């Protein structure tokens, strides 16, 4: 273990050059990137994504379900027995927690920990790192423990494949009393980062203010802070990735993330997509280019929460291998065509017999999709999302005055067996690389345990948010409503971080019943 870290240390002395190095490795793809996001032939910056944070936020009090509320008719017997079955199924496919750690020696005689999980041997020296994810807020966010700095300060982080910059709360921030924050004063490996006259990032001497950082999350909400550099540790401290950029938030204006369990966000898209001056290197890029993981894969295998309580979900993010524990069949691969995002082309998208979009796409029904673990639901171009919700029985579009987080609503019972016998909702289908991927109809509903207060929607009862909401016109954002039902693999394509070698892999799950 020591030897691995020593090697990592050598590489890390040149970390700031790594930032530049990674950028220089970016190739111009021969795929029609010109069509990607911008009309003028330039791959444009994924700025449009800024607004998705706003829409994925729900007010704190919304989670506290008012059981006495008139909205809930869900205690009837049929419904209860249906749920019973649901639970039995859910428990069926969970990861068997055979997890034993043992100490062994590596080839240099250093003690290393290896462990057995999911019937497979794992070893840090093999470069496979499992990050357990927890989900206690009705699939709104899965949180992963990540350590920062010397004697790693552990924070509950959102893994976001849709953005690049990692941020945490600083002690100076607004939410410091309510969230665990990162205290740079307690870390001897911490440095502020500055940018020199030619725009290159520099390690700053103590006492030098860090480079200013800010990020706007749609109208009204902006996070402000500064950039530092420190070590990140993943998977119960098994993998340390040294000297990476990290934004420390000092204030948030407008909007609020206080209601969320997250204590920060780990950016996992490409650093090249960062709008921060001096560039950015994500931990996934760094561990890949430095050879710290066996293979340059990140697998998301997320399990959903109990539909009734919104609690008990989990799963894991695995660096270094295709986590096939719950994989049913083979992974279907498609090229990641954007140098910034985990985005590619689907073949077609359908809802029952209705064609929503089809290769090569049109201006208002584009063929592009991106995998976004930072988005709770599907955010789709407006003509597509209107068609989908139209086909869900009993759907309703709330008007803006309702003050709801999302306009598209569906009956909370959508997808439940007794309900589907009458409703017969059509199947949503995303075809990628010739393979059809669907989601259980239950997951057409987001926050199924939280019916919308009827008073806000003209007295309509037992309505919930749809998992299909309006996103940018340019691309279909495939969020957690899809990801939690599949095995999703992001592949950097090797240590060189060559854009044209990047791939997205999708697979079906053994523990999910799609029909
Ligand atoms: C880093 O920069 C911030 C903001 O400019 C400043 O408050 C802090 O004291 C600096 N930290 C160090 C270690 O120099
Ligand atoms: C922090 O928590 C306290 C009480 O627990 C609450 O009054 C306050 O509003 C919270 N602050 C923020 C920024 O959410
Ligand atoms: C998976 O791929 C292997 C090798 O290409 C093939 O033999 C097998 O039939 C595939 N399995 C499925 C379920 O498609
Ligand atoms: C995929 O789904 C489409 C649309 O529902 C259907 O026409 C096609 O036959 C399916 N393909 C496969 C291989 O199942
Ligand atoms: C990675 O880059 C190095 C240096 O440019 C080159 O020698 C090597 O062949 C590349 N490897 C791959 C797999 O492209």
From TrEMBL:
Domain of life of the organism encoding this protein: Eukaryota
InterPro entries named among the record's database cross-references: Aspartic_peptidase_A1, Aspartic_peptidase_AS, Pepsin-like_dom, PEPTIDASE_A1, Peptidase_aspartic_dom_sf
Residues covered by region (Disordered): 64-97
Residues making up the signal peptide according to the UniProt record: 1-22
Family annotation (PROSITE patterns): ASP_PROTEASE, PEPTIDASE_A1
Protein name listed in UniProt: Endopeptidase
Keywords: Aspartyl protease, Hydrolase, Protease, Signal
Active site: 160, 372
SUPFAM superfamilies: Acid proteases
GO biological process: proteolysis
Family: Belongs to the peptidase A1 family.
Gene3D superfamilies cross-referenced by the UniProt entry: Acid Proteases (2.40.70.10)
CDD domains, alphabetized: pepsin_like
Residues annotated as domain Peptidase A1: 142-507
Molecular function, one GO term: aspartic-type endopeptidase activity
PANTHER family reported for this sequence: BETA-SITE APP-CLEAVING ENZYME, ISOFORM A-RELATED
